[in-house]
Design brief:
This protein has 207 residues and is of the alpha+beta class. Helix content is 35%, strand content 21%. A five-stranded antiparallel sheet has the order 3-4-5-7-6. Strands 1-2-8 form a three-stranded antiparallel sheet, with helices on one face.
């Protein structure tokens, strides 16, 4: 009877010790992970938060959870009218179609955002004037930057070449899965543009 009790006691002690060891291992792992910064590969001008911030302009576009891979490049509009921003998706850049063709193509941004002076924007909105731009407009002014007007556009009839897995003309055939992903990204950044806002002063001063 005594031996049985001793055996049971020893077994309980072993279980307790094993539990303590596991707790120590998890605690040590948590300390190492929590106390060490894990390097993250960043792409130039790529969003790492819930906004795509155009730092050069002091504006930002909100991004949904699955679309924080957006990044941009800035260009000057011909004739010195203003500037534009081409917006891309790293997810799309990294994608390939069913034929193995890469989708990364600087000539096919998801969205183009333009900024001109408020006066110029009004001219580009007026149909009777030679500067009218029905494609890139309408140009809108906002309370956070009244001296500028913004316009955003994506041509829904133009898709990146990787979407096509067939031939030209009547032989055109879209990679359905990739086309859906591409459209979802365009819709996401277009929604973000509809909610464009100025970067809060606190965000500017904290950098």
């Amino acid at each position: 009877m005594l031996r049985t009790n001793q055996y049971g006691l020893s077994r309980r002690i072993l279980v307790i010790v094993a539990g303590l060891v596991l707790l120590l291992v998890f605690a040590a792992a948590s300390f190492l992970v929590g106390g060490k910064k894990i390097p993250i590969l960043q792409k130039s001008n790529q969003s790492s938060s819930q906004y795509l911030t155009i730092t050069e302009w002091g504006v930002r576009l909100p991004l949904s959870q699955g679309n924080r891979d957006m990044y941009y490049t800035v260009f000057n509009i011909q004739g010195g009218v203003g500037q534009g921003v081409r917006i891309y998706s790293k997810d799309i850049d990294d994608a390939t179609n069913s034929n193995g063709k890469s989708c990364k193509n600087a000539n096919y941004p998801l969205f183009v955002l333009t900024r001109v002076s408020a006066g110029r924007g009004q001219q580009m909105n007026t149909t009777s004037l030679p500067d009218y731009d029905g494609y890139g407009g309408p140009f809108k002014t906002y309370s956070f930057q009244t001296n500028y007007a913004f316009g955003g556009v994506h041509d829904d009839n133009i898709a990146a070449p990787c979407i096509n897995i067939g031939g030209t003309g009547d032989a055109y055939k879209a990679d359905a899965s990739l086309a859906a992903k591409y459209k979802a990204k365009i819709d996401a950044i277009r929604t973000g543009y509809y909610h464009i806002e100025g970067v809060p002063t606190s965000d500017k001063t904290s950098k």
